[in-house]
Amino acid sequence: MSTDSDPLAAAGAAEVPLVGPVVCAALRIEARAVRRGLTRTPVVVVGYRARRAARLPGACAALVTVGFGGALDERLRPGDVLVADEIRGPGGTAAPCSAPRLLAEELIRDGLSAQVGPLVTTDHVVRGRERAVLAAQGARAVDMESALVAARAGGLPVAALRVVVDGPRHPLWHPGTIGRGLAARRVLARTGPALERWSVLLVRGEDGPAGVSGR
Protein backbone atom coordinates (compact mmCIF):
# COMPACT_ATOMS: atom_id res chain seq x y z
CA MET A 1 0.00 0.00 0.00
CA SER A 2 1.19 3.54 -0.61
CA THR A 3 2.70 5.71 2.09
CA ASP A 4 -0.32 8.00 1.84
CA SER A 5 -2.53 5.16 3.03
CA ASP A 6 -0.27 3.50 5.56
CA PRO A 7 2.54 5.72 6.90
CA LEU A 8 3.27 3.32 9.75
CA ALA A 9 4.12 0.46 7.44
CA ALA A 10 6.10 2.68 5.10
CA ALA A 11 8.24 4.01 7.91
CA GLY A 12 8.71 0.64 9.53
CA ALA A 13 7.06 2.03 12.63
CA ALA A 14 4.71 -0.87 13.30
CA GLU A 15 7.23 -2.38 15.71
CA VAL A 16 7.84 0.88 17.58
CA PRO A 17 5.59 1.59 20.58
CA LEU A 18 3.57 4.77 20.04
CA VAL A 19 2.82 7.13 22.91
CA GLY A 20 -0.39 8.38 21.32
CA PRO A 21 -3.43 6.76 19.73
CA VAL A 22 -3.70 5.31 16.24
CA VAL A 23 -6.70 6.26 14.14
CA CYS A 24 -8.20 3.49 12.00
CA ALA A 25 -10.33 4.13 8.92
CA ALA A 26 -11.90 1.56 6.63
CA LEU A 27 -11.60 3.55 3.41
CA ARG A 28 -9.02 5.91 1.96
CA ILE A 29 -11.64 8.63 1.55
CA GLU A 30 -12.29 8.46 5.30
CA ALA A 31 -8.57 8.40 6.08
CA ARG A 32 -7.85 11.44 3.90
CA ALA A 33 -10.68 13.38 5.51
CA VAL A 34 -9.74 12.78 9.13
CA ARG A 35 -6.03 13.26 8.41
CA ARG A 36 -6.69 16.89 7.45
CA GLY A 37 -7.27 17.82 11.08
CA LEU A 38 -4.51 15.71 12.62
CA THR A 39 -1.02 17.04 13.31
CA ARG A 40 0.70 14.14 15.04
CA THR A 41 -1.63 11.15 15.00
CA PRO A 42 -1.03 8.33 12.47
CA VAL A 43 -3.92 6.99 10.41
CA VAL A 44 -4.07 3.36 9.27
CA VAL A 45 -6.42 2.20 6.52
CA VAL A 46 -7.80 -1.13 7.75
CA GLY A 47 -10.00 -1.82 4.73
CA TYR A 48 -13.63 -2.68 4.23
CA ARG A 49 -14.84 -4.77 7.21
CA ALA A 50 -11.32 -4.36 8.68
CA ARG A 51 -9.88 -6.98 6.34
CA ARG A 52 -6.45 -5.36 6.68
CA ALA A 53 -6.49 -4.95 10.46
CA ALA A 54 -3.18 -6.84 10.63
CA ARG A 55 -1.58 -3.51 9.68
CA LEU A 56 -2.39 -2.09 13.10
CA PRO A 57 0.61 -1.56 15.39
CA GLY A 58 1.18 -3.87 18.30
CA ALA A 59 1.70 -1.07 20.81
CA CYS A 60 0.11 2.36 21.07
CA ALA A 61 -1.94 4.39 23.54
CA ALA A 62 -5.33 3.56 22.01
CA LEU A 63 -7.10 2.43 18.85
CA VAL A 64 -9.73 4.82 17.49
CA THR A 65 -12.01 3.85 14.62
CA VAL A 66 -13.45 6.71 12.59
CA GLY A 67 -15.56 7.01 9.47
CA PHE A 68 -19.09 7.06 8.16
CA GLY A 69 -21.98 5.15 9.68
CA GLY A 70 -25.70 4.60 9.59
CA ALA A 71 -28.07 5.89 12.25
CA LEU A 72 -30.47 3.50 13.95
CA ASP A 73 -31.94 6.16 16.20
CA GLU A 74 -34.13 8.80 14.53
CA ARG A 75 -32.66 11.41 16.85
CA LEU A 76 -29.38 11.10 14.93
CA ARG A 77 -29.49 13.03 11.68
CA PRO A 78 -27.08 13.07 8.72
CA GLY A 79 -23.99 15.02 9.69
CA ASP A 80 -24.30 14.21 13.40
CA VAL A 81 -21.41 12.42 15.10
CA LEU A 82 -22.01 9.33 17.22
CA VAL A 83 -19.29 8.71 19.79
CA ALA A 84 -19.58 5.14 20.98
CA ASP A 85 -19.70 4.38 24.68
CA GLU A 86 -19.57 0.70 23.79
CA ILE A 87 -18.96 -1.27 20.59
CA ARG A 88 -21.23 -4.26 20.11
CA GLY A 89 -20.13 -7.14 17.94
CA PRO A 90 -21.27 -10.59 16.87
CA GLY A 91 -22.54 -13.01 19.48
CA GLY A 92 -23.46 -10.33 21.98
CA THR A 93 -19.90 -9.17 22.62
CA ALA A 94 -19.47 -5.58 23.79
CA ALA A 95 -16.27 -3.58 24.19
CA PRO A 96 -16.45 -0.51 26.46
CA CYS A 97 -14.99 2.69 25.02
CA SER A 98 -12.61 5.03 26.79
CA ALA A 99 -13.85 8.48 27.87
CA PRO A 100 -16.61 8.80 25.25
CA ARG A 101 -18.24 11.79 26.89
CA LEU A 102 -14.93 13.58 27.00
CA LEU A 103 -14.49 13.02 23.26
CA ALA A 104 -18.05 14.20 22.56
CA GLU A 105 -17.43 17.35 24.60
CA GLU A 106 -14.31 18.13 22.57
CA LEU A 107 -16.24 17.67 19.31
CA ILE A 108 -19.03 19.95 20.55
CA ARG A 109 -16.42 22.53 21.49
CA ASP A 110 -15.46 22.61 17.81
CA GLY A 111 -19.03 23.25 16.75
CA LEU A 112 -19.96 19.70 15.77
CA SER A 113 -23.19 17.96 16.71
CA ALA A 114 -22.06 14.98 18.80
CA GLN A 115 -24.00 12.42 20.82
CA VAL A 116 -22.96 9.38 22.85
CA GLY A 117 -24.37 5.85 22.71
CA PRO A 118 -23.84 2.23 21.69
CA LEU A 119 -22.45 1.42 18.23
CA VAL A 120 -23.08 -1.99 16.67
CA THR A 121 -20.92 -3.63 14.01
CA THR A 122 -22.50 -5.90 11.38
CA ASP A 123 -21.17 -7.69 8.31
CA HIS A 124 -23.71 -6.13 5.94
CA VAL A 125 -25.63 -2.95 5.22
CA VAL A 126 -28.53 -2.67 7.67
CA ARG A 127 -31.90 -1.45 6.48
CA GLY A 128 -35.62 -1.71 7.08
CA ARG A 129 -36.84 -3.97 9.86
CA GLU A 130 -33.36 -4.99 10.97
CA ARG A 131 -32.55 -1.35 11.64
CA ALA A 132 -35.61 -1.13 13.91
CA VAL A 133 -34.65 -4.34 15.74
CA LEU A 134 -31.15 -3.08 16.51
CA ALA A 135 -32.53 0.27 17.63
CA ALA A 136 -34.93 -1.51 19.98
CA GLN A 137 -31.90 -3.19 21.56
CA GLY A 138 -30.47 0.23 22.36
CA ALA A 139 -27.89 0.62 19.59
CA ARG A 140 -27.80 4.10 18.08
CA ALA A 141 -25.62 3.63 14.98
CA VAL A 142 -24.10 0.87 12.89
CA ASP A 143 -20.84 0.29 11.06
CA MET A 144 -18.88 -2.67 9.68
CA GLU A 145 -15.42 -2.30 11.25
CA SER A 146 -15.29 -1.07 14.84
CA ALA A 147 -15.95 -4.35 16.65
CA LEU A 148 -13.37 -6.11 14.48
CA VAL A 149 -10.75 -3.50 15.38
CA ALA A 150 -11.73 -3.62 19.06
CA ALA A 151 -11.30 -7.40 19.05
CA ARG A 152 -7.64 -6.92 18.09
CA ALA A 153 -6.98 -4.29 20.75
CA GLY A 154 -6.08 -6.66 23.56
CA GLY A 155 -5.88 -4.48 26.63
CA LEU A 156 -5.59 -1.23 24.71
CA PRO A 157 -8.21 1.48 25.20
CA VAL A 158 -10.58 1.76 22.25
CA ALA A 159 -12.84 4.50 20.91
CA ALA A 160 -15.12 4.88 17.93
CA LEU A 161 -16.52 7.89 16.11
CA ARG A 162 -19.03 7.69 13.25
CA VAL A 163 -20.43 10.51 11.13
CA VAL A 164 -24.00 9.72 10.13
CA VAL A 165 -24.74 9.44 6.40
CA ASP A 166 -28.01 7.49 6.37
CA GLY A 167 -30.75 6.60 8.83
CA PRO A 168 -34.36 5.50 9.26
CA ARG A 169 -35.64 8.54 7.36
CA HIS A 170 -32.67 8.87 5.02
CA PRO A 171 -32.11 5.55 3.18
CA LEU A 172 -28.64 4.71 1.90
CA TRP A 173 -29.77 3.78 -1.61
CA HIS A 174 -31.17 7.19 -2.53
CA PRO A 175 -29.93 10.03 -4.79
CA GLY A 176 -29.60 12.26 -1.73
CA THR A 177 -26.88 9.99 -0.35
CA ILE A 178 -24.25 11.66 -2.52
CA GLY A 179 -24.89 15.06 -0.98
CA ARG A 180 -25.08 13.61 2.52
CA GLY A 181 -21.82 11.75 1.94
CA LEU A 182 -20.02 14.92 0.88
CA ALA A 183 -21.38 16.74 3.92
CA ALA A 184 -20.30 13.87 6.18
CA ARG A 185 -16.81 14.01 4.71
CA ARG A 186 -16.57 17.70 5.62
CA VAL A 187 -17.65 16.89 9.18
CA LEU A 188 -15.14 14.05 9.43
CA ALA A 189 -12.39 16.43 8.32
CA ARG A 190 -13.18 18.62 11.32
CA THR A 191 -12.86 15.87 13.93
CA GLY A 192 -9.06 15.67 14.06
CA PRO A 193 -8.33 18.50 16.54
CA ALA A 194 -10.88 17.13 19.02
CA LEU A 195 -9.41 13.65 18.69
CA GLU A 196 -5.94 14.94 19.50
CA ARG A 197 -7.11 16.99 22.49
CA TRP A 198 -9.04 13.95 23.73
CA SER A 199 -5.96 11.76 23.40
CA VAL A 200 -3.89 14.13 25.55
CA LEU A 201 -6.56 14.11 28.25
CA LEU A 202 -6.86 10.33 27.98
CA VAL A 203 -3.14 9.86 28.59
CA ARG A 204 -3.43 12.15 31.61
CA GLY A 205 -6.25 9.97 32.93
CA GLU A 206 -8.85 12.75 33.04
CA ASP A 207 -12.54 11.81 33.06
CA GLY A 208 -15.07 13.31 30.71
CA PRO A 209 -17.43 16.04 31.90
CA ALA A 210 -20.77 14.88 33.20
CA GLY A 211 -22.73 17.39 31.18
CA VAL A 212 -22.57 15.63 27.79
CA SER A 213 -25.88 13.94 27.02
CA GLY A 214 -25.81 10.46 25.59
CA ARG A 215 -29.47 10.21 24.65
Offer a quick outline of the entry.
This protein has 215 residues and is α/β, with parallel strands linked by helices. The protein contains 7 helices and 8 strands. The longest helix has 13 residues, at 176-188.
Number of continuous helical runs:
7
Rough shape? globular
Pattern of helices and strands:
HEHEEEEHEHEHEHH
Calculate the terminal CA-CA distance, rounded to whole Å: 40 Å
Estimated radius of gyration: 16 Å
Number of strands: 8
Helix content: 25-40%
Q: Which range does the strand content fall in?
A: 15-25%
Q: Which class best fits the helix and strand makeup?
A: alpha/beta
Low-confidence stretches: 1-16, 208-215
Write the layout of secondary structure elements.
Elements: H1 7-11, E1 22-25, H2 28-35, E2 43-45, E3 63-71, E4 81-88, E5 94-96, H3 100-109, E6 114-121, H4 128-136, E7 141-143, H5 146-151, E8 158-166, H6 176-188, H7 192-204
Parallel strand pairs: 1-2, 1-3, 3-8, 4-6, 6-7
Antiparallel strand pairs: 3-7, 4-5, 4-8
